Amino acid sequence: MAERQLMKFAGNTLERKLDFYEFTENEKRFKEIYESEYGYLLMTPMYLDQLKTIIEQYPFLPKIFDFYMATSGEAMSTAKFNMRGRDMSIWGESEIYMCQHERYCYPIIHTHEYVEALYVYDGECRQLICGQTIDLHKGDFCILSPNAPHCVLAYNDDNIILNFLIQKKMFNSAFFDVLSEKHLLAKFFGDILYNNSACPYIIFPTKDSTVIRGVVEQMYREDYYHRRYFGKFMTTYFRELILHLLRDFEMDAIVPNPIDTKLNHQIVAVLNYIHVNYNHVTIRELSEFFSYSENYLSKILKEYTGKTFSSLINVIQMKNAAQFLEQTEMSIMEISQEVGCFDLSHFNKKFKKAYGITPTQYRRTHVKS
Fold first, then answer.
1. What angle separates helix 184-194 from helix 309-327, to the nearest 10 degrees?
2. Which of 83, 56, 59, 84 lies closest to 71 in space, CA to CA?
3. Do 2 and 158 form a contact (C-beta atoms < 8 A)?
């Protein structure tokens, strides 16, 4: 077993500590069953109704329905449930709820309306999302779309998995507002999580980042002890966590191909390169930079974004042109050249097609006098 890392909190009267590696009574029972002839009952992903049927057949199995009943489906119950020795309810005073996934537990396939994230604090686990199996390792931070059927499989003492349950409005303000509307990745990530992607998730492989680990630990402390203003602290820490993920690990983000769910570890970096160099980059330059053939690069861009290379460039050009018109006093000609359109007539036609009005009309209606 890896060396235990203890989280400590000094209270007003005595020191208390949280130990992620300490087994709950449920986990002890699950591990005994896992190591017995009935271990297969804990290793096959199942729906809640299937679990109820199994428990009727094998009454000695632990009956843990309250958490899944409280967090699954379109509306979440306000009923209390017990999680690792504390009575909880969703949502309470915070827009974010954290818990530790119980090891050796039933892999119950479930859905919910909020955004869920999973952080592998130690060890590894297997995540089943929309029928696809994904292996996660220490440091992986996985963001999962609402309404995506999923479950977690973790069968080792050192598989320490921390779950974040986040209200969608809170997640959007912390994640997408940072990227900003005109950033190519904002729409890309939004399409993955909210627009019926074949397998909707994003993985940030943070590995041994002490910064990410530290913020996650702070959040868990706040959620566990429920001290004064803990909900506000949870929101603040979560925003900080998202900022670190996007600043330090955005280029390493892993997403599934919406066509065949295969992973491409460079697609996010490709899109960011396009976003930064949109006013001069060519498909040849892009393919050479990432060591792809032009045909293959064109293919994966179309598969992942639904757009051709030229369409992506056009979208970014027009969004940036609109921002220049709103926020600067640059002439139309200067803006046209700045965004990479060196034919003013062509620029005017492209802008009108995108926004329905000419650049001059757009500036008049969007700039406050």
1. 120
2. 83
3. yes
Q: Are 342 and 336 in contact (CB under 8 A)?
A: yes
- What is the tens place of the pLDDT at every residue in 131-176? 889 999 999 999 998 888 999 999 999 999 999 999 989 998 888 8
Across 130-242, the runs of DSSP E, i.e. the strands, are: 132-137, 140-144, 150-153, 160-166, 201-205
Pair of tokens at residue 304: 């992942």
CB atoms within 10 A of CB 286: 19
Token digits for 275? 């976003």
Distance from C-alpha of 152 to C-alpha of 129, rounded to nearest angstrom: 9
Query: Could you tell me where the beta strands, DSSP code E, fall in 148-286?
Result: 150-153, 160-166, 201-205, 255-256, 263-264
**Distance between CA atoms of residues 220 and 352, nearest Å:** 50
Q: Quick one: DSSP state of residue 14?
A: S
> pLDDT of 354-367, one tens digit each?
999 999 999 998 87
Conformation bin of residue 62: beta by default, left when phi > 0, alpha when psi is -120 to 50: beta
Residue 262 CB neighbours (<10 A): 10
Pairing assessment for the beta strands 150-153 and 132-137 based on DSSP bridges = unpaired
Residue type, 262: K
- Tell me the chain's radius of gyration from C-alpha atoms: 24
Name residue 226's amino acid. Answer: H
Reference 206, options 103, 118, 278, 102; nearest CA is: 118
Largest Cα–Cα distance in the chain? 77
Distance separating alpha carbons of residues 105 and 43, to the nearest angstrom: 9
The whole-model pTM stands at: 0.78
